[in-house]
Predict the structure.
Amino acid sequence: MLLVQRLRDRDEGAMTIFYDKYAAALYGVILRIVKKEETAEDVLQEAMVKIWHSFASYDAGKGRLFTWVMNVSRNLAIDKIRSKQYRVGSRTQPLEDSSAAMRLAADTTFRPEHIGLQEMTRQLNPDQRQIVDLLYFGGFTQSEVAEELNLPLGTVKTRARAAIKVLSKLVR
Amino acid sequence: MMDMQHYIESGILEEYALGVLSADERAEVERVAQQEPAVARELVAITNALDSYAAAHAVVPSSAMRERVLQAWEDSLRETGPTVAPAAPVMAAQSPTPRMAVAPAEPVTATAVAADNNGGAVVRQMPAAASAGRTRWLVAASIALLLISGLGNYLLYNRLRQTESSLELAQAEQSRYAATQQAALNERDQQLAILRNQAFQSVELKGTPKAPEALARVYYNATTKAVYVDVRNLPELPEGKQYQLWALDNGQPVDAGMLDMATATGDSIQQMKNIASAQAFAVTVEDIGGKPAPTMSTLTVIGNI
């Protein structure tokens, strides 16, 4: 892949191409995690810098560039909200907050042009969606989710697997 | 097999894709995926599903934000890039020491003598000599960095010039191509208009026994007297020869013009001389530029209106 090669060669011009290709997807997910546009922009900036400097650690054999940059960005965003919540304290508080905020965000910031999202969420039942969102946007492990939602770990795993199955069927 | 199914259902692949595993656990998943195609397939499916879910949330940032983010990234490059920046403050801190200007060239013995004459200065003199050595090194290093940076700039500038000139070339090439395409398109449009015009009669010119495969068509407008010729297939011409179109009016041949190369090969339709009146058209092979009267032995195609 040409872009990967150029980034590996430290070609600065490639970063503009990278931005145009991936920024919308990265920003969308970051915004979904941190909620505030201003914070999301900061995180996107950090992500760009991090992707540039740690590009050598991207192994194309282990997955697509999209997956890797999305994980870098997502982790930065999750670190961001965790560090803030850290100062606030409580472990239970943030999850309730964030899932409430997520439910709110899903209703109010929904954009009709995002057919893809609409299509996907329509196929997931609310339980599945809650779990996928907590795992993917909240950065929780399955056992953390189980603990927080007071569900058996097996149920969380089953739901997560079912949800991901639904999503991958849509992709195919 | 059963074992792998159990492994897949354990949820570890989802956690891998979600990025919540430790480095050791990740390495273990990668190892298993490398050995077990079923696990690898499952992992790809999970990753793709999550990628699509992520992509579905895409929000296009404003163009102002695009500028800011790219600028910030560039600024970060300059910050972490060259080591020149930290060297400069050190230089500045050293320079105010007045001895520095003279001290560097003095041998150590001279310093010692000066110290004897000057009693209390001994203690201060020695570090000055040491710092002079460092200063010299710093000056040399700065000059080296400056030279390197100058060379870098020069190389970058050259590359920029090359890029600019190849961009110019590409743009010129592109606009030339666009112009030719536009011209060709206009011509086709005109040709199409002729073919669609009811006033034009189509005259089929068939090959003579000399060239039975030959075929051409003339479009004749009796009102405007316009004549167009459209070659389907004419034999290749000998060196120095050209096809000439004739109109036959009451048995008399009238010169209707020479066929261009592109016309003769069938690449385009050509407008010929206006013809006042005709009952038939024919094409002969003549010397380049044509003849006032046709060479009947070279008659290639002919047809009646």
Summary: Chain A touches chain B through 50 residues (CB under 8 Å). The longest helix of chain A spans residues 65-88. Confidence is low (pLDDT under 50) at residues 89-115 of chain A.
